[in-house]
From TrEMBL:
It is found in: Cell membrane. InterPro entries: ABC_transptr_periplasmic_BD, Bact_iron-sidero_bind. Pfam families: Peripla_BP_2. PANTHER family: IRON III DICITRATE-BINDING PERIPLASMIC PROTEIN, IRON(3+)-HYDROXAMATE-BINDING PROTEIN FHUD. It is a lipid-anchor. Belongs to the bacterial solute-binding protein 8 family. The lineage of its organism: Bacteria, Bacillati, Bacillota, Bacilli, Bacillales. Its main location: membrane. Transmembrane segments: none annotated. Coiled coil: none annotated. This is Iron complex transport system substrate-binding protein. Residues 56-306 form the Fe/B12 periplasmic-binding domain.
Length: 306
């Protein structure tokens, strides 16, 4: 009798084990499916929109690449400008360049989220590919913008943590600079591109958010007046001396026409004569995301306090 029971017991154990494994596989599959399909509702500029709770493949058609990289979000497509930043070079090494005209290419990338600017073309087509969220540049300040990106990708806590830390570091650096140079020191930010010279206000990248908002340094009155409406102002070389403060920060493209620096007019500007000119890599200085802002803050700390 015992010999008959033993095979039966073994068979029952195998059946129970197989059923248990099947249930475990089903549960695991359901969990994976739930994670894949899990969404959150993000309150965008254009109203509520359902987006992935944990986006895995994001296409970025705006200036928010550094925000996402700092939050460890995987990016599968970016615009050309982001690709040119040496600060993103490692992370974007194998990420293809796309534009708002590359509908088929973006479809092939199989994004689960698209982030762009309100000025992008083909937004209605993008919305058919994946949830698409756009932002209006300058509608909110640069730190609030990062927080919004954090909310969008379900990493608000991480975004806020960086913001709090950045404020503390920037405040301390600003106080240190003013202690050395005085409360009334003025700084101008300049960039030459396509044979045109532009000066910038307090929210146009190129280190302006750090200088004028985070460090609380001043811009010359004439710069403030002329950049107040658009955020920047294009001028001729002859007028440049009127806009340069005690210090001049040049966001410089090495492949552009920088011949204005060879003119006697430029060389006679007091900031130039006093060796108060800081040249920065324009490609590294362009944006105002956490990675770029940290780089800019360190740049100014080094140059103002050396």
């Amino acid at each position: 009798m015992k010999k008959l029971l033993l095979p039966i017991i073994l068979i029952m154990i195998l059946i129970i084990s197989a059923c248990g494994n099947k249930l475990a596989e089903q549960a695991s599959g359901e969990q994976g499916k739930d994670e894949k399909e899990e969404t959150i509702t993000y309150q965008s500029e254009n109203g509520p929109i359902k987006v992935p709770a944990h986006p895995k493949r994001v296409v970025v058609l705006g200036s928010y690449v550094g925000d996402l990289l700092s939050l460890d979000v995987n990016i599968v497509g970016v615009e050309e400008w982001a690709k040119q930043s040496p600060l993103f070079e490692k992370e974007l090494k194998d990420v293809p360049v796309v534009s708002d005209e590359d509908i088929e290419k973006i479809i092939e990338l199989e994004p689960d989220l698209i982030i762009g600017a309100d000025t992008n073309k083909n937004l209605n087509k993008f919305k058919k590919i994946a949830p698409t969220v756009t932002y209006t540049y300058g509608k909110v300040d640069y730190l609030t913008q990062h927080l919004e990106i954090g909310k969008l990708v379900n990493k608000e806590k991480e975004a806020q943590s960086w913001i709090d830390d950045f404020k503390v570091r920037a405040k301390a650096t600003g106080e240190e600079i003013k202690k050395k140079l005085g409360d009334d020191v003025t700084v101008t930010v300049l960039e030459s591109y396509n044979k045109e010279i532009g000066i910038f206000g307090d929210n146009w990248g190129r280190g302006t958010e750090v200088l004028y908002q985070a460090l609380n340094l001043k811009m010359p009155d004439k710069v403030k007046e002329m950049t107040e409406k658009q955020g920047y102002y294009m001028l001729s070389t002859e007028l440049l001396p009127q806009y340069v403060g005690d210090y001049l920060v040049i966001s410089k493209y090495k492949d552009q026409d920088n011949s204005y620096q060879d003119t006697s007019l430029y060389k006679e500007i007091p900031a130039v004569k006093n060796n108060h000119v800081f040249e920065a890599d324009a490609n590294a200085f362009m944006f105002n995301d956490p990675i770029t802002l940290d780089y800019q803050l360190n740049f100014f700390k080094e140059h103002f306090l050396k």
